[in-house]
Specification:
This protein has about 280 residues and is of the alpha/beta class. Helices cover about 35% and strands about 25% of the residues. Helix 1 crosses helix 7.
Length: about 280
């Protein structure tokens, strides 16, 4: 029997479990950390030049695992960090992480329990004029109605030497033929506005083998994350579930390696400059 499908993000516990399983089954976390530690610091070296205080914003920061690993080459400055995250559970985990991390005294955290859209509405209503030196939107544009409009708004908050970091699945990944927004969509938008940006590709993959075993709990949990639907296996009509599994296994999306089904989850990174 099929029931009404609902978004996975409506259930914090299920989302967190599925996300942790996704990280376990994929190389995404490692390739992202390599980029953040090795490549990003040099890209961001020019932001806030000459300033004693930097304004930073994380949109969709989750539990802060990536935020607290971002390294800026401005060791002598203080940082005002706006955290925008709608999940109370994720914000709590972020605060716990901050309390356990040494040497973060130079950062002042402001906690905003809001979606990206709610934060934008609040910012506009209060007519804030504060400018940001660095804004990052990591794996969150899937959850807004109009990704390009969201990018446009947050780009407008950048100071003259600021940078907007966007990380999404690449159009070269297995998601390129799906309905999911990719960096290809954002690049098309930025090109239409003649906005300057830098682009990077981060090869990544996911072992999705268990998704094809009926009744496998890990497979069902991973399917929830991949489809962004709560209990997808139990609520999706049979035809839709069959099409989803067919797409995931399609040669354009996955390859078989030693009996395992490996999905192409290559990430795209965009580092966007301010409006001129």
């Amino acid at each position: 029997m099929s029931y009404a499908m609902r978004s996975l993000v409506e259930d914090d516990n299920r989302y967190l479990k599925s996300f942790r399983l996704f990280l376990e089954c994929s190389s995404e976390h490692q390739c992202m950390q390599d980029f953040i530690h090795v490549i990003l610091p040099d890209i961001l070296a020019s932001i806030g030049e000459g300033k004693a205080n930097l304004n930073v914003m994380g949109v969709g920061s989750g539990a802060g695992e990536k935020d607290t690993k971002l390294r800026l080459k401005h060791l002598a400055v203080t940082v005002d960090n706006q955290v925008v995250e709608p999940s109370a559970q994720q914000l709590h985990l972020y605060k716990v992480l901050v309390s356990q991390k040494p040497n973060l005294d130079y950062i002042k955290f402001t906690w905003n329990k809001m979606t990206a859209t709610e934060f934008e509405k609040d910012w506009r209503e209060k007519n804030y004029t504060k400018k940001m030196d660095f804004i990052h939107m990591i794996q969150m544009l899937y959850y807004v109605k109009d990704p390009c409009a969201t990018v446009s708004f947050y780009q407008s908050l950048l100071d003259k030497k600021g940078k907007l970091l966007i990380i999404l699945v690449s159009d070269e990944s297995g998601w390129g033929n799906s309905h999911s927004v990719t960096t290809g969509d954002i690049k098309t938008y930025l090109d239409s506005k003649t906005v300057s940006y830098q682009s990077y590709e981060l090869p990544s993959q996911i072992d999705i083998t268990e998704c094809f075993t009926e009744g496998d709990q890990r497979g069902e949990l991973l399917l929830d994350f991949l489809t962004e639907v709560f209990n997808f296996s139990g609520t999706a009509p049979a035809g839709l579930k069959a099409r989803a599994l067919e797409l995931l296994r399609h040669p354009d999306c996955s390859k078989e390696v030693e009996g395992r089904v490996i999905f192409n989850n290559t990430l795209g990174v965009l580092v966007v400059d301010p409006l001129q």
